[in-house]
Specification:
The complex is a heterotrimer. Chain A is mainly α. Chain A folds into two domains: about 1-50, no CATH class; about 55-260, MetI-like (MetI-like fold, Orthogonal Bundle). Chain A is built from eleven helices and no strands. Chain A is globular. Chain B is an alpha/beta fold. Chain B has helices at about 40-45, 70-80, 95-100, 110-115, 120-130, 145-160, 175-190, 205-210, 235-240, 245-249; strands spanning about 1-10, 15-25, 30-35, 55-60, 65, 80-85, 165-170, 195-200, 215-220, 220-225. The longest helix of chain B has 16 residues, at about 175-190. Chain C has one domain (about 75-275): MetI-like (MetI-like fold). Chain C has ten helices and no strands. Chain C has helices at about 20-45, 50-65, 75-105, 115-130, 135-145, 150-170, 175-185, 190-225, 230-240, 245-275. In chain C, helix 6 (about 150-170) packs across helix 8 and helix 8 (about 190-225) packs antiparallel against helix 10 (about 245-275). The longest helix of chain C is centred in the last third of the chain and has 39 residues, at about 190-225. The relative contact order of chain C is 0.12. Chains in contact: A-B, A-C, B-C. At the A-C interface, helix 1, helix 2, helix 4, helix 5 and helix 6 of A face helix 1, helix 2, helix 3, helix 4 and helix 5 of C. Chain B: Keywords: ATP-binding, Cell membrane, Membrane, Nucleotide-binding, Phosphonate transport, Translocase, Transport.
């Protein structure tokens, strides 16, 4: 009966709406939020930001330090992603249904990727800080460990896009495993793989601030230092350079991705 | 000479693939016809062991294929070319790269990995592309080619192996009539040059037009095996019968 | 065997192949990544790090975390409450963000917004997204005080900017003709949005919202640790950076991991359900 159908969809719509509102209210009650304070805070915060964070003459003196730290951060984020990508290609080949020849290894790789992807990176950062102290390598390792799970999963999907049929056709010519992978699968997938690497570099540069704050390295540490010693204009300058860099890298990555995948 | 004897294949879900299949393929074009799910593809793929049957024998010359070890199997596969309904090319690569893939099986492991092709191999790949009428498309990405062109790249890749046999798994099922004619004529020419062509076909009229021999398959069994001229209405009825044949036989 | 090739219509020569744009970009990018990585690894400041001890201690702590997770200073009750706080924070900011982003996306998506407005919105959202979440939270913690409010406002900011971009892109995939069809029946703007746009983009918006929920959950943990706004992230920070109790860190990690893997499972199911 058409009537019944319409009534049911209407009821489902209302239930969904009520559930969403209920979750909103429940969340607020649980966190004991002061809504008024939070709402007014939005504008107060923006005003405060503009007033205090505008870089002044003193801040410009810090520019060389800031740009140097930013440069180091970017370079290390790229290195961490690239090294992770090399490992992830190997894992991806072992984990993809089309190229992974060992069944239990395939499952193992997928499980490993899932655990690494969901492992709270705060924990990585803190544990690494304890053992490797406050230096570049700690940030590098933290970003590396954060990236490996994501890239492995993404690579598995990208490698599987090179169809099983094409691989079977190469097997039918009598070619061996590694020539098939290196001459057939990888050249076909390289555009997709590099797109993912670019995406992760972009992401890691965004996250590098937070990781830096936790591990006491790079631009995150620089910001923390200025912020905690109330040198707000310098902290503001850090933010400005971060905005410029992030947007520039986003635009560059988007453009490159378009070229790579036609 | 390619001989198949007593070949059996059952799939994991107890579906019969092939049952006691005996057939000898002669030079020329042999078309395998039969209803969907009859075992045409299973038969074809058993020849280069993309599917491994449980029992029986597949012999190319004096070489047993069904029980060959990995190394021997690769050698035999290199002697047998194959083309597919969906072309199965590496679409991101240029046509010439895909043709060159045909000689990967005859190379050492290291040369294969490095993708090192000799000048002679490169020249031959260009020659073969010209032969299938794609001289101007050598450096084109395969993804940008039409279906008929892709299939011709597939044929060139198979020819690159200098094969004794070419297996064709529904090679024209995705093609328009003009490309169908071009591909089938090409296969006929290759047969005249001494390459044995075994082709799975859906359309009986195409089989009649281009094949020298017909093998009819139904329910995993051979129900017709003979020259094209012998394919009369009774034979056709047996090939495309629904259940009756399995019970009678 | 082929006796000899057929007579050729023309004799093609192996030619030097021109690289396509994509191939050139691929090579250049691979080269650049290798060069930058090499430079970074060679010039990395390690401050005379003793590699053997560092890796040994890292391995030891990892074992403590993974093999011997154990309660530390905080009781189960305290941990679970902090955990619930983090989940509530992630949920609230995602819902708020999605709600606001829907309307902002209408002002950003090409079929609806006039060009200058769309461009202005896009740029604004790009700038907000470029500022890390943690900075928003730190700023708001300074202005309205350390607490859940600062975390909510800070996380919402970033969610709105992220979801607005995603939602607008989803809306742009709807063919304008479908909207025009409803316009043609005499519907106004909001009716068109409600009855033509919404049914088309509903599934995609839902899946983006869910992705953002996963991100916000991670961020809520991070913010608690780095800004001290509470939640399980703060416990994680205290256990590791102050008490050096890696057994408790391990326990918290297991808790977070379990939740995240449940979310991933739900996400996979949902995607299958939506795209079937």
């Amino acid at each position: 009966m058409p009537n019944l159908y319409l009534r049911q969809t209407a009821r489902r719509r209302w239930l969904t709406l009520i559930a969403a509102l209920g979750l909103l209210v429940a969340g607020q009650l649980w966190l004991q939020l002061n809504d008024r304070q939070a709402f007014m805070g939005v504008w107060a915060g923006l005003a405060w930001l503009v007033h205090n964070f505008t870089p002044d003459a003193a801040a410009w003196h810090d520019l060389p330090t800031i740009t140097y730290q930013l440069w180091r951060t970017i370079v290390i984020a790229i290195a961490a992603t690239s090294v992770a990508a090399i490992v992830a290609v190997g894992l991806g080949l072992a984990g993809a249904a089309t190229t992974g020849r060992i069944r239990w290894l395939r499952g193992g790789v997928r499980l490993f990727a899932s655990v690494m992807r969901n492992f709270p990176f705060v924990a990585w950062a803190l544990v690494l800080l304890f053992s490797f102290k406050q230096n570049d390598f700690t940030g590098f390792l933290a970003l590396f460990l954060m990236t490996i799970g994501y890239l492995t999963r993404a690579f598995i999907e990208t490698l599987e896009e090179v169809g099983g049929g094409a691989i079977e056709a190469l097997e039918a010519t009598g070619a061996r495993y590694w020539p098939i992978v290196i001459q057939g699968v990888l050249p076909a997938a390289i555009g997709g793989l590099l797109s993912w690497v670019l995406y992760m570099i972009e992401n890691n540069i965004r996250d590098a601030t937070l990781v830096g704050m936790l591990t006491g390295t790079g631009i995150g540490f620089t910001f923390d230092l200025y912020f905690k010693s109330f040198r707000y204009p310098s902290a503001g300058l850090v933010v400005v350079t971060l905005i410029i860099t992030t947007i520039a890298i986003e635009l560059l990555a988007t453009h490159l991705r378009q070229v790579l995948t036609h | 000479m390619l001989t198949i004897a007593g070949l059996n294949k059952t799939y994991p879900n107890h579906k019969r693939g092939l049952e006691a299949v005996n057939v000898t393929f002669a030079p020329g074009v042999t078309a395998i016809i039969g209803p969907s799910g009859a075992g045409k593809t299973t038969l074809l793929r058993s020849i280069n062991r993309l599917i491994t049957p449980e029992s029986g024998s597949v012999r190319l010359g004096d070489q047993e294929i069904r029980t060959a070890n990995a190394k021997a199997l690769r050698k035999i596969r290199h002697r047998i070319g194959m083309i597919f309904q969906d072309y199965n090319l590496i679409e991101e690569l240029a046509a010439i790269d895909n043709v060159l893939h045909g000689c990967l099986g005859g190379k050492t492991w290291l040369a294969g990995i490095l993708g090192h092709y000799t000048a002679a191999e490169q020249a031959r790949a260009y020659e073969l592309l010209a032969e299938v009428g794609l001289a101007d498309f050598a450096t084109q990405r395969c993804a940008d080619l039409s279906g008929g062109q892709k299939q011709r790249v597939g044929i060139a890749r198979a020819l690159m192996q200098s094969p004794e046999v070419i297996l064709c798994d529904e090679p024209i099922a995705s093609l328009d009539p003009a490309s169908t004619q071009a591909v089938m004529t090409l296969l006929g020419d290759l047969a005249k040059r001494g390459i044995m062509i075994i082709v799975n076909l859906h359309q009986v009229d195409i089989a009649r037009q281009y094949a020298d021999h017909i093998v009819g398959v139904n329910q995993g069994r051979i129900v017709f095996d003979g020259p094209t001229a012998g394919l009369n209405d009774a034979a056709l009825a047996a090939i495309y019968a629904k259940e009756a044949v399995a019970e009678d036989a | 065997m082929i006796a000899k090739p057929l007579t050729l219509t023309r004799a093609p020569q192996p030619q030097k192949r021109p690289l396509s744009r994509a191939q050139r970009a691929t090579r250049l990018l691979l080269l650049a990544l290798t060069a930058i990585s090499g430079y970074a690894l060679v010039t990395m400041h390690t401050d005379h790090l003793n590699w053997a001890t560092a890796f040994a201690s890292f391995w030891h702590n990892l074992q403590l975390m993974i093999v011997h997770p154990h309660l530390g200073q905080d009781s189960w009750a305290a941990l679970l409450q902090a955990f619930a706080n983090t989940i509530a924070l992630a949920m609230l900011t995602t819902l708020l963000g999605a709600f606001l982003a829907f309307f902002l996306a209408l002002a950003t998506a090409r079929p609806f917004a006039p060009k200058p407005l769309a461009l202005a919105m896009r740029s604004l959202m790009a700038v907000i997204r470029a500022i890390p979440t943690i900075l928003w939270v730190l700023v708001y913690a300074t202005v309205i005080g350390l607490g859940n409010e600062a975390a909510v406002v800070g996380l919402t900011f970033h969610s709105v900017a992220y979801l607005t971009k995603a939602f607008a892109e989803a809306m742009e995939t709807v063919p304008p003709a479908k909207l025009a069809a409803l316009r043609a029946t005499g519907c106004g703007f909001w009716l068109t949005v409600r009855h033509a746009l919404w049914p088309e983009v509903r599934a995609s918006l839902l899946s983006w919202t869910f992705i953002r929920f996963e991100i916000n959950f991670t961020n809520a943990v991070a913010v608690g640790a780095a800004a001290g706004t509470g939640g399980i992230g703060y416990n994680l920070f205290m256990a590791s950076a102050f008490n050096f109790d890696f057994q408790e860190v391990g326990l918290i990690v297991y808790l977070l991991l379990a939740f995240a893997i449940c979310l991933e499972f739900v996400a996979v199911r949902m995607r299958k359900h939506l795209t079937h």
